[in-house]
Amino acid sequence: MAGRAAVPEVIWSRPERTGRGPRPAYTRADIAAAAVRIADAEGLDAVTMRRVAGELGCGTMSLYNYVPRKEDLYELMMDAVSGEHELWEPSGDWRADMIRVAHQTRALMHRHTWLPRLMSPVYGFSPNALRYLEHCLSCLDPFQAPYGTKMELVAMVNGVVTTYVGNEIATAERTRSLPWSADEENAARIAYLGRQVASGAYPRLAASFAEDAGPIDLEGVFERALTRVLDGFG
Amino acid sequence: MAGRAAVPEVIWSRPERTGRGPRPAYTRADIAAAAVRIADAEGLDAVTMRRVAGELGCGTMSLYNYVPRKEDLYELMMDAVSGEHELWEPSGDWRADMIRVAHQTRALMHRHTWLPRLMSPVYGFSPNALRYLEHCLSCLDPFQAPYGTKMELVAMVNGVVTTYVGNEIATAERTRSLPWSADEENAARIAYLGRQVASGAYPRLAASFAEDAGPIDLEGVFERALTRVLDGFG
DNA sequence: CCTAGTTACGTACAACGTACGTAGTGCGCT
DNA sequence: AGCGCACTACGTACGTTGTACGTAACTAGG
């Protein structure tokens, strides 16, 4: 209980290599890549300390030389995939650039479906996150506003992307894991809700479900949400 | 492996009481209340099957007669606190009503700080969730738009509230669990980021942090985000 | 009344994060 | 040059988790 971390212990503040002792067998990039590979292939829940160590080919407890807590492993994973962001020269049209950023982030999250779950609490300040943030701010150079407003815009766009793609992924995984089609799922949901709604206590809900019977166009929903958020910033 | 649930197994579709066998010692409301009490007092991670059973005064495995999986216990918790929503007669000004809804949900989440974590994947269709949804739609009666648009508005407001209050809570819990003040926290973060920014690779980030040195007004951020979202809907 | 379905609960298991102890290794200092 | 210490590596072990399973008691429907 004595000398254990009287400091935030952000992993990015501790150096990867101190110079003393034998050279580490793996880099942080190696570890992050292994964890990302597992998460992409088998889901986030398959990312355990034992499994990652096995993927690297070392003992379980050796991982703790690189990563003090599992939470920091998650941090490494988020930073690794944040490096996949393509950073272009701003076009001069900040609105178009932010839409492009949002679509790219959405694609990134669909490539790594575990990302929304890790991002939803709060995203930190990893190296690649800083580069991404700086790029967003550079896209917003033509947007006449104090930096506080620009940061709020970036946070809002990121929040909306995380929320909506998280929903898309949850929906997709539910329909994939279950042994029936999306239409049947939809029908079953209508059937259950129909029973609730039949009581007459929810007339507007009933009208809503009667209005749009088909499956929801998730991409369209995302696009409209994004447009509305940007509209709110004028 | 044979007869185990070839159906979604939404907990709300199974009756609370079938009539056969001894009468259950507890109601779903009892169980939900116990779990909520624990989560409010000791955090969501303290809500384990053993702990809830202990709070009720029954054996651990007896809980599984009421709740097939832990996920369903979460569902019960969300429904229970959703019942705390105050549902008023719509004022005729849908914008004002939605702002009131959002503030009330925010207050609810601050009262039950584990809510954003449970809501972020997707919120289901529990009885009280349906009542809440119907209330939102009734507030939107003066809003001339198809129900699809109204549903998107409600979803967006809920998403923003969840995201932002989730951030507020994460920030608050970080400063509470750590043995230094918010100012020191802020200073430490500036110090760490300052080191990164000092390289000169992030000029706009540097300018941003130079601009607003004080602590962030989270309530103001929330208020502005909400206003902007509603502005996006005209 | 009987029997089938339900409740109650103790035992048990696999999997998790990780504390701890020990052995080996190589940089920095004297 | 060589000593020492900080670091790496890793096996063992502990506490905790969700929950499968078996058994005993009980109550409504035929």
TrEMBL record, chains A, B:
Keyword match Zinc: no
InterPro entries: Homeodomain-like_sf, HTH-type_TetR-like_transc_reg, HTH_TetR, Repressor_TetR_C, Tet_transcr_reg_TetR-rel_C_sf
Transcription recorded as keyword: yes
Keywords recorded for this protein, A-Z: DNA-binding, Transcription, Transcription regulation
Top-level taxon of the source organism: Bacteria
SUPFAM superfamilies documented for this protein: Homeodomain-like, Tetracyclin repressor-like, C-terminal domain
Name the UniProt record assigns to this protein: TetR/AcrR family transcriptional regulator C-terminal domain-containing protein
Gene3D superfamilies: Homeodomain-like (1.10.10.60), Tetracycline Repressor, domain 2 (1.10.357.10)
Domain HTH tetR-type: 25-85
DNA-binding region per Swiss-Prot/TrEMBL record: 48-67
Pfam families cross-referenced by the UniProt entry: TetR_C_1, TetR_N
